Structure formats: C-alpha cells, structure tokens
Amino acid sequence: MAVTQAQLKRSGVDHSTAEPLLIARNISKAFGHVQALSDAYIDVYAGEIVALVGDNGAGKSTLIKVLSGAHRQDAGEIVIRGQSATINNPNDSFDLGIATVYQDLALLPSRDVVANLFVGRELTNRGILDRRKMTEEANRVVRQLRTNLPSVRTPVRFLSGGQRQAVAIARVVRFGAEILLLDEPTAALGVKESHEMLTLIENLKERNKGIIVVSHNLAHVFRICDRITVLRHGETVGTLVKEETDSTEVVRLITGADLL
Amino acid sequence: MTAIFEKIKQPGDTQEEDSRLRRLLSQREVQLLLVLVVFTLLVRAGGAKGFLGPTHFPIFLSQVAPDMLVVIPMAMLLIGGMFDLSVTGVANLSVVLVGWTFSRLLGTMDDTLLIILVVAIGLTAGLIVGAINGLAVTRLRMNPLMTTLATWWMAQGAATGVAGGESRHNFVGSFRDIARFQPLRDLGETFPFLQEMRISTLPMPVFYAAIVIFLGWLILTRTRFGWHIFATGSDRLGAALNGVNVNRVTLVGFIATSVAAAMCGIVWASRLTSAPPNTLGGLELRVIAAAVIGGAALTGGEGSVLGAVLGLFFMHMIRSATIQLGLPVYWEFFVLGAVLFTAVAFDAWTKRRADTQ
Ligand SMILES: Nc1ncnc2c1ncn2[C@@H]1O[C@H](COP(=O)(O)OP(=O)(O)OP(=O)(O)O)[C@@H](O)[C@H]1O
Ligand SMILES: [Mg+2]
To answer: What number of other Cβ atoms are within 10 A of residue A188's Cβ?
Structure first.
C-alpha cells in the first residue's frame, strides 16, 4: 500500500530521492483471542504528517505501541531509515529516534514537569543527577514551545488536561527525535487548545520531523496532514493523499461502506 | 501555546515573600518538625523535664537506630508503590540464625572469622527473602500484601523452628561490639565538648543509621535510580513506557528492605547477646506507619527520607514520653493509633483541598 512518487509530489513534499524515515509492514499482533492487528502498514517521510485513522478498536493505538516498544509485534517488519529494526522495549524505540505521546499520556502525576520531561532519560554529571541543567533545559523547552507554565517545578497532578498534553509534547520535542508518534493529541482539548496543538504539530513538521498522528477528528486530520492511512479491523485498507480525497471517502474507508 | 500553559493560580502569587513562607509550611517535613518541637515542649512542661535533654537524647538515638535501618528502605519501597510486611519475620529469622550459628561453630574457628560468617549468614537470609518477595511480585505478579504476609509467616515460622524453643546465649564476646562499640569514645577524651554533648558515647547502630539515612537520601534525590523509584510509584505503566525498568526498581527495593531488616536483627542479637525468635515485634507496622506519617503515600510516588526519619522519631518520642511521664504503658498504642489516624486524615484533607482548588 505504498504511495507512488507522483502522489508524494502532490502531497507537497519532495521525496523523489528520499526514503521513508519509517516503514512498518505486515504488522500483526494478537492479545489472546483478540487480533488487534492483522496486516497493518504505515510509512512516514521526513517533513510530513501522516494521519492514522480508523474506528474505535481498529488497532491504531496498538500499532503506535508496537512502534514505541510498548508491545512486540507477532509478525511483520519495521524499517527505520532503510534498515530493518527490532524494537523490543521503549529504550530500543528511543534509540532509533522515535518519540511517542501516548493516548493516555503516560505522565507521572505526583512528579513535577522537570521529572516528567526527563523520565527514563535523566541527565547526570558523574553519576549524580544534574538537576540544575534539567531545570534549565525544561525552562528552555517550555519557552521554545512559546508556553507559559508558572513553574516547571509544579507537579503534573495540578495541571489542566491541555497543560498535561503540552508537557507530553514538550517531552517529545526535548528528545530531539526525528520520528514522532502522537496518539490522539487533541482528544482532551477544547477548541482553542486544539488549534494551538495543531499549530505546534505543524511547527514540528517544519523542523523536518516525520510525524504520525492518530485522530478521530477528520477536520483536524485534513487541516494538518499530508497523507491519511486508514486502519480497519487491524488491517491497513489504504493510504490517501489529502489533496486527492475528502472526508466522505475517508469515512467510507473507515467504516468499510461501499466505495461506489 | 499560552492558553495551554495557562497560568496556574497559586495562593499568594502576588506576594513573593508570603508565598515562599506558605510553600515552606506546606512541606510535610517542616510541619512534622514543628509538631515534634511542640510535642517535646509539652512533654517537658508536663513534668518530664529531661525529655530529649542532653542525657536522654543519646539514649533516645540508640533506641531509634535499629528501626531507622528499616524505615529508610521501607519508605523507598513505599515511594516506589510497594510495601513489605515481612520485615519482623526476617529480622527474627536473622536473630535466630545468628544464635544458631554461634552455638554450632563457637570454638571451631577464629572469633573474628566467626563473627563475619554469622553476619554474612544473617544478611544472606534477608537477601533471599527479599529476592523471593521481589520476584514473586514482579515476575509472578503476585499481590504484595499477601506475598509479604506469607513470607513474614514463613520467615517467622522458620525462626521459631530453627530456635526449637531454645534461646541461645553462646555468643562470642566481641560480637557485642556490633551494637555497643562507641567509635568516638577516644575522640571524646581529646575533645571534651564531645563528651559533654554525649556524642562520644553514641554506639555503633547510630552510625549505621546515619549511613543508611545518608545513602537513602543520596539515592532518592541525587541518582537516576532514585527518580526511577518515584516514577515507578507515581505511574508504573507510564514509567515503563518511558523506559524505566520498573521491575528492577521493585526487586531492588524488596531486597534492600529485607537486608536492612536482617541487619536490624543482628543489631538486636548483639545488644541482647541472646537469640529468641520473638526478639522483634511490630516492626513492620511501626516503620510503615512512621514512613506514612512522614509523608510517604501508600499509593506511591510521594515521600522523603527526612520525612521517614522524623516520622520514626515521632513514634519513638510518643513511646518514651509515655514512660517518662509515668503514664500507663497500655495507653501507648492508643496514642500511636491516634497519631497515625490524624496523619492519614490530614493527608486526605490536603489532597481533597488540592483537588478542589
Ligand atoms: N493490552 C491489551 N490487552 C488486550 N486487548 C487489547 C490490549 N490493547 C488493545 N487491545 C484490543 O485490541 C483492539 C485494538 O485496540 P486499540 O487500542 O489499538 O484500538 P484503537 O484503534 O486505538 O481504538 P480507539 O480509537 O478507541 O483508541 C481492541 O479490540 C482492544 O480491545
Ligand atoms: Mg487508541
């Protein structure tokens, strides 16, 4: 289900010589009797946003988690920058330059923003935590995102849904990863915050990141993405270039209704 | 992004000074310290003039020290979202193994060697029970409450079984030094002020406790592993998704707690030069309650070493105040219970208030 070069041209990204940052093909994953993924495919190039859409339970989060190392696929291949990759755990995924914002954010409520930004990737100086440097860098990232937290020492428990989402995104930005996986980044947000989040994601695209965004909101999808990959019952049924399609067609692919 | 990072309302935001004082006063450690000071003054006013005075304080410290060895790793275990009921059983097992080994091997080898062997056996027992607890909870996903209740009983049963109804008294004389040696004694002769302040008479367990407190503080606040403990207790799944090895955090926590409990047992055996299987009682609840009073959350993710230290001080202060004031000791438990109740109620109240803000 790869895209043709002609389609890519029209998506506004010149990939004629480039190879995808990430390809996941023939991915399958079962949880007991539930076949969450059976034949999933997705790819993403640098400097583009691919939307991953599908009904509830279609397997979107599972595919994201396979790529982030939270789950190990039963079968299928992951290729990162042209090289076959094995992702057994979250650290493997980080090391390949993949950073993930999960649907439930995976934040630490009792810990402050600094600790949340650096969890699993703390900075040390001769074995001792470099708390000053982490605080400075946290402030820098928060500023860079044109954000305005009262203090990076505030426990995440006290933040609003939107602020938490921003912390989760800030973490990903800080990693400097090239491949970003965002699972429903606007789901918990109001109209204004959603708008700001989408702008932020577009900014990240400008920085030449390859971004996969899961979303149920087709208006958001059509606003920011270049291509749309549709997952149904764990199977990729197709990838559409935004300029060549509209939401009716996407909905039909999602639900499996006749495409006449 | 300004709206997303919308400013959080904080009380006294406009008045910096006021806000700093409030923040200080909102820290559990500071609150607890104030309570301890007030408590001390009240007890002194109530008639026990020497309470925590220069004569009492060093004795008090050496009484608290064995529990202190255990409360620090227990607090770290709680911060990591777990807890361990088995420490009393482990400590008693260690006591009995010490007595048993002495009674079997006394005279067969060099005394120093024997002492090293005895201590190694005691600590190994702790290591084994800790590893069983940790592996059961992480690999087999067994419930920590039931697992450590079971290993408590097994360890206690093994202790009674090995003891076989005998209290053993065949100890190597110098084994007493583990609990009684006063490392600063000589220093006290050259610096009289150390003697006046009774620092030179502090026995070894106080120094073991000081080392454990320092290590606990260092690990928890200054190392990646410490932050991983907080992360694991704050949200186990979230921490794991971010690459924290949550099972290692839990396993190390259980092992450290059990080894500390074994060390506590060795200190007691040395102090009493006797090894009955019921040397320790109620250790688990004493240290868990102390850690909770000191701000460790039973749900994990919160707490501190200083809080645990102060919490344990409070527990022991209540105990010695009861004695010094000549109150009937039967009431000691009532007071301990009331303090614990108040601490938990206060916790719930601050959480409720924070949630509605
Ligand atoms: N850890 C798990 N254990 C068992 N079943 C799971 C697990 N995770 C997902 N599933 C199942 O796999 C299927 C796909 O779930 P997934 O969360 O990937 O869907 P989704 O497309 O993200 O849905 P949504 O839009 O609701 O987020 C569902 O049937 C779900 O119940
Ligand atoms: Mg999902």
So the answer is: 17
